[in-house]
Amino acid sequence: MIDRLIERIIAKKNPSVVGLDTMLEYVPEHVVNNYGRQRLDLEGTANAIYEFNRAIIDAVYEYVPAVKLQTAYYELYGPHGLETFRKTAEYARSKDLLVIGDIKRSDIGPTAKAYASAYMGQTQLNNDAIRVYDLDFVTVNPYLGSDGVMPFVEVCKKYGKGIFVLVKTSNPSSGEFQDLNVGTGKLYHWVAAKVNEWGRELAGSTGYSRVGAVVGATYPKQLEELRKRMPGVYFLIPGYGAQGGGVEDVLSGFNDDGLGAIINSSRSVICAYMRSPWKEEFPPRRFADAARAEVLRMRREIDTGLSKKGLRPW
Amino acid sequence: MIDRLIERIIAKKNPSVVGLDTMLEYVPEHVVNNYGRQRLDLEGTANAIYEFNRAIIDAVYEYVPAVKLQTAYYELYGPHGLETFRKTAEYARSKDLLVIGDIKRSDIGPTAKAYASAYMGQTQLNNDAIRVYDLDFVTVNPYLGSDGVMPFVEVCKKYGKGIFVLVKTSNPSSGEFQDLNVGTGKLYHWVAAKVNEWGRELAGSTGYSRVGAVVGATYPKQLEELRKRMPGVYFLIPGYGAQGGGVEDVLSGFNDDGLGAIINSSRSVICAYMRSPWKEEFPPRRFADAARAEVLRMRREIDTGLSKKGLRPW
Questions:
Q1: B195 SS3 class
Q2: A309 included as an active-site residue
Q3: What angle (nearest 5°) sits at the alpha carbon of residue B37, between those of residues B32 and B39?
Q4: Contact A273, A29 (CB under 8 A)
Q5: How much is the pTM?
Q6: What is the sign, positive or negative, of the torsion defined by CA atoms of A177, A180, A183, A187?
Q7: Before A313, cis peptide (omega within 30)?
């Protein structure tokens, strides 16, 4: 799976992915109106979000290797929201995009297995097994240790999928526990070492493992340092754009081969039509064009950054 | 909310709760057959699980203060599974049970807020706000630090709800990170101290806070020690029964007032009809009676244990 991700990054000359963290308030009125503006219920809302997501995917699929779906924003709209999550993932796959489920799950063994089966594997029914969400990657929280993570790794092995384990998150208080001193290092160093270990059996032909790490763009020094400690681990880097991380901040997440990192941007893309400079150019009806414009701007920005450092892999 | 939990614990003379972690393989054939045994799809499966859950709730609601629903086992069956999760919670509430959602979520601020709103608060629609799941408590993972937890605390304040934060989990490798030495203590001590702090504003009239902690029955020494460090924090103790924790192991989770802990048991109750001694007494048709018998056995066992230590609060 990590090889397929790298293939698409190179083909599209773009290591950045679009986060479809769609809330109702981001969906323009003309879309919402299709589902009954006045008496919009959860089902109508979920359908409006699906229409919005489809339009964004149509506008950007030629330019990005993958989309990331944050489950929280679908769970917010109940079971109908999850159906929109499922259909959005299916539609993205039909456009040859890889799909990352930002689910940040973890639990004791049998429960972690249920999560892994639901999101990347298959669900056993009476005489049948069904792939429910069939995502390519999910994010995993490490707090429970190996036996909370290994069920995900097992499903990755069996179905050719991948995970990204939270190592150093992008939020302001991520240091509260993650930066605590443990022996000669920090807690996130210990997690990083375990991620190296968990991924050892899952290296692809490119040398990168299907067990990746989440490292926030908002901590560029730690990103640089973790890059050195985890050479064969792919990074999913959130926090670029709306959360404040700039292009300089994310470049240290790449290896010398110009690979090793994908950069997620959610609100700055899907809400581009609401923000300068794009809102001056694109009316709400053209929200998807604004998203494409922002994706192309980001791609140029990252390409220029990588090029300056001699790291362009395409 | 913690006061309402304590009220029910005393009224029912029982600090143990039933975990409805229902997988299809636990549902007896005669229930499954109602939904088309041969060609059972996700919707039929989810409906069979709902029928099973209702029967268990009917059998036990007079004897337990709350039920715990593990989201993984509902997500396993896709959006239909989540609808069964929602309906099960609604049905449990209609029987005056409190409902704990074992969701173990956590994320950066706005995303944590979306989870908290979905599960305990309300979802903002266009002209309306809807309570989607309206659970009484959820479990939260602390790895992201305060700003991943505070959105849950805020929703607790606003809607009178509560949370249980993972401190020391019941799984075999929980020590891998949680037991790492940090300064003069362990990582889970640092998490415990934060849980004390997060809960300070949310103390109920009984002196217990609405910010609780998850501490596994499988680590009785740590349970005893954490009990002393967190006097005003309610514990949710998993791992009793199927995971190997016995009654002696959980008793140290109680305070001198005989309160301060709820004990969860999932498979040993809902699968009671499949296991000795109950399977000899109850055929699969009477799975709910077997669950009730096991609930009453546990209640007696815990009551006797508390009584011996002079801790019986009823």
A1: helix
A2: no
A3: 130
A4: no
A5: 0.97
A6: positive
A7: no
Six-digit token pair at A156? 């990755």
Which residues pair with residue A102 across a beta bridge? A70
Among all chains, which residue has been given the structure tokens 């539609």? A91
Q: Provide the shortest C-alpha distance from residue A10 to chain B (in Å).
A: 30
pLDDT in tens, A11-65: 999 999 999 999 999 999 999 999 986 678 999 999 999 999 999 999 999 999 9
The pair of three-digit structure tokens given for residue B169, joined into one six-digit string: 């989990």
Dist. CA A314–CA B17, nearest whole Å: 57
Report d(CA B294, CA B265) in Å as an integer. Answer: 10
Domains of chain B, each with CATH number or no CATH: 2-306 (3.20.20.70)
CB contact under 8 A, A105 and B108: no
Whether residue A29 lies within 8 A of chain B, CB to CB, comes out as no
Could you read off the pLDDT of A156-183 as tens digits, one per residue?
A: 999 999 999 999 999 999 999 999 999 9
The ipTM (two decimal places) reads 0.97
Query: CA-to-CA distance for B284 and B158, rounded, in angstroms?
Result: 44
Q: Which residues contact A75 (CB under 8 A, 6 or more apart)?
A: A81, A82, B82, B114, B115, B118, B119
Round to whole Å and give the CA distance between A244 and A248: 11
* Alpha-carbon gap: A63 to the closest alpha carbon of chain B (Å): 26
Q: Which two tokens stand for residue B42?
A: 């996700």
With 80 as the cut, is the pLDDT of residue B1 above it? no
Q: Residue type for A25, please?
A: E
* Residue range B299-308, pLDDT digits in tens: 999 999 999 9
Which chain A residues contact residue B169 at CB under 8 A?
Answer: 108, 143-144, 148
Give which of A308, A102, A310, A298 is closest to A214, Cα–Cα. A102
